[in-house]
Structures are given as structure tokens and as C-alpha cells.
Amino acid sequence: MRRSGREKEGNLSYLKYIVAIVILLAAMIAAVVCYYMDMNEKLLSEARRNLKTENEYKEQYFWQFVNSRLNWYRTVAAFCDEPDGSGDENWHMILKEYSSDDMRFGIADTQGTIYFGDNETADISDRGYYNKVMQGEEVISDVLVGSWDGQETVVMAVPIWTDGKVSGAVCAEYTTLNLGQALNTSATEKAGATLVFDKTGKVVASYKGMENFTTIYDMLETMQYKDGNGVEKLKKDAAAGESGYMTYYNNNKVRLFYYQPSEYNDWTICSLVVTDAEEKVLKGLRTTSLWMLAGVIIAVVLILLTSVSGIRHLQKNVKKMQRDYLTGCFNRVTGKRIVERGMHMEQNKSFGACLFIDVDNFKGVNDTYGHDEGDRILINVGRILMQNTRDRDIVIRFGGDEFVIWMYKVDSVKAAEDAAKRILKAAYDEAGTGLSIGIAMVEPGEKNYDAVMKRADEALYEAKAEGKGRYAVYSDAAE
Prior knowledge:
By secondary structure, this protein is of the alpha+beta class. The protein has helices spanning about 1-80, 90-100, 130-135, 175-185, 215-220, 230-240, 275-290, 295-320, 330-345, 360-370, 370-385, 415-430, 450-465, and strands at about 105-110, 115, 120-125, 140, 145-150, 150-160, 165-175, 190-195, 205, 245-250, 255-260, 270-275, 350-360, 395-400, 400-410, 435-440, 470-475. It is about 50% helix and about 20% strand. α1 (about 1-80) runs antiparallel to α7, α1 (about 1-80) runs parallel beside α8 and α11 packs across α12. The longest helix is centred in the N-terminal third of the chain and has 78 residues, at about 1-80.
């Protein structure tokens, strides 16, 4: 009996040992699975952020492309003869020179007849875009089906004015594939694409392969979804002018999809990307976890350390590239890029005033007390400028002891002067530092960054000439 008891006791200990090993293995597997899921979410989140940034950039690029074309058509319209079908008008040479396989140039008359460079004509009197342009509007049409050899096209049209009346229209018809190529020209975009579509799903700017589908919704309906079909949500968001994300699968590959409202015609612009890099990492983790748990733990730790180090390194580099290392203000290059982007958007309603700031007697401080004291003053000035401006204002260290503030949505000199007074007082009270400030207002529709900076610099010179420690406002009378 004692022997049987020892056997039972030994079996129980062995069982406990087996259970402990099983629990340890289960814990290791759980740790690998949890890490795998966490890494998946982090990689997807980072990919979403990058995709959103790329899509916003493409939205700006696309409308810069469209606006540049419209500007050129306005130029053509400015010296066009009134179209009369005689064949002697001066725009015939332009039509022949600039029409191509992807863009068809035409001049329309007031009767709805459009003349093309290949001597063909067509009746467009029933087209919605034609009726709008004949009322004096500049038009970007919705997607037209079968207008040009069965292709889906979009027309950009501007009126021709003669003696104050619309006497015709300059029309440029683009295939949707050609507009898509304007968005998808980079060699780095092999794993993704950017599209523009209207509320019905018709693709305005397309890419090769989309010709197999009537709408973008039809294409997305063929994909697989693990968390329900996001196509209905996309339809509702596009109709409401909302932005959002989708995740779907095609041939077992994860695709991320981001969409946001665009500038014209209630269109939506979207970007999608294949997450091949992420899939390779996750597949490697799955395979390794099945064959060697100990190796998985080591690999997980190494991947985690590498990922964290890489993200931190990237964040440090991005911050270093965007910010002045000493004051934390935007550096000169980044600040100019942000402001110029704003000046070219929303008909230049973003930035309304520029304050050029210089630290008074800064060279004397450096010469007398040394560069450490000079650095301390610059740090304090940068802090004071950022504390006395709004989140949307852009504070830039321009160089040396010079700073620049671009005030967001300010349309009165008084608002700019109030900000200057506030800054001068804070600098004197908190840091014992005198500043000189030159103020220049941004004219409605003005887009020339350097011209505004020049005016602010001249106002700064005037403030210094009047005794420093004050501000001056640029005016034409000062010239």
C-alpha cells in the first residue's frame, strides 16, 4: 500500500510538473498571441496615419493640377475668336496642337455645337456643364458616359467673353484614367493607388483595372470583410461629406482604405494601400511561434525593441527636421512650407497677418555675457511667443535672433497690433527682454510668401528706427 501511495504521490507530482509546463507554454503562447495582436494594431494604426497624410497631400496635388489647367484655359479663352464654324478662327492651331489620346480640346459656340481639332463637331446643348458655362460659370463636370468613343470622361470648361457677354466656351475633356494618372505617377506607389469618385460611386480619377467596374462600390463589393461590409458606411459617409477608414482583404492581402471629401462637385478622394510589409512580419511571427516558442519570445523582444527604437528614431528625426532645436519653434523651412500651403488653399483665408520680430541689442548680450546667456534669451523669447499665440498660429525661428509669427484667420490690423502689444509686454515682464516687431497684413487672395515677409521686414526696420521696443505696421504710404 505504501508503494502504491508513493506511486500516486509521484504521479501527482509528475502531473503537477506537466500542468506547470502546460501553463508555462500556454502563457508563452498567450504572450506571443497578445504581442502579435498588439503589433498588428500598431502597424495598422501607423499605416492608417500615413495613408491619411498621403491622401490629404494627394487632394491638394489633384486640385493644384485642376486649377493649373483651368488657368491655362482662361488664357486660351481670353484671346479666342468667337466660334462661328468658319474654320478661320485663331484657336484651330491650339486645338490641333494640344489635343491628345487622353485629352480632347474643343471650342463650343452659343448654339451648343462644339468644334474639335480633328475638324469633328458634336452637339452638347443638352449637357449640364454646357448650360452652366454659357451662364458664365467655370465648370468641372460630373462623369460623362460615352461622350468620347465610349470612354468615361470629365470636362473642364470656361466661358469665352465678348463685349461682356458669353460668346462660347473653351472645353477640355479628359478620360477618367488620365486624371487618375495625374494622381498616381510616383514609382513608390506600386502598393497602392488614389482615386476620386462622386456620390454615386462613379470614378472621376481612375486607374487601370477600374474599367471592369461601373462604380467604386461595385469594386469594393467583390472584396472580403472580417468586421462586416463597410461599403454601406462608405456610401453614407460620401453622401454626407464625411471621412473615414475601411479594412478589407483581397487574395488574403490586407488593404487599408481612407476617404475624405474633396473640394469640388461633392466628390470624395480616397487612397488605398496593400500592407505587404506588415503581412510579412506577421507571417514570420506566426511561423516561428509554431516551431520554436523560445525563439518566438526572443524574436518578439528583438522585434519590439527594434520597432520602438525605430519609431523613436523616426519621431526624433521628424521633430528635428520640423522644429528649431533650441526654441521649439518651427524652423524656417518647415514654417514657410506650412504657411505657403495655407496661402494656396481656401482662397487664402488661412493666414491674415505676419509679425517679424527681432530681439533688441542681442549682439551686445552675446558679446558681453556670452552665448549661453544669448541662448537663454532665445529660449525665453520662443516660449513667450508660443504662449501668447493661438494653436493655429505659426511661430517660426527665422534665424539668429529673428522670429516670425503668421497669424491664422486675422483680417484686421487691430488684432495684429493687440498681439504685438501682448508679446512686447510679456517679453519685458517675464524675460526682461526688449523686442521690435514689424507687422504686415496679407492682402485678400495674396499668395506670395516672400512679398509679405518683405513688407513685414520693412515695418520691422521702421520700428527699430523709431527706438526699438515697439511695433510698426507696414503701409503703402511708408514707401
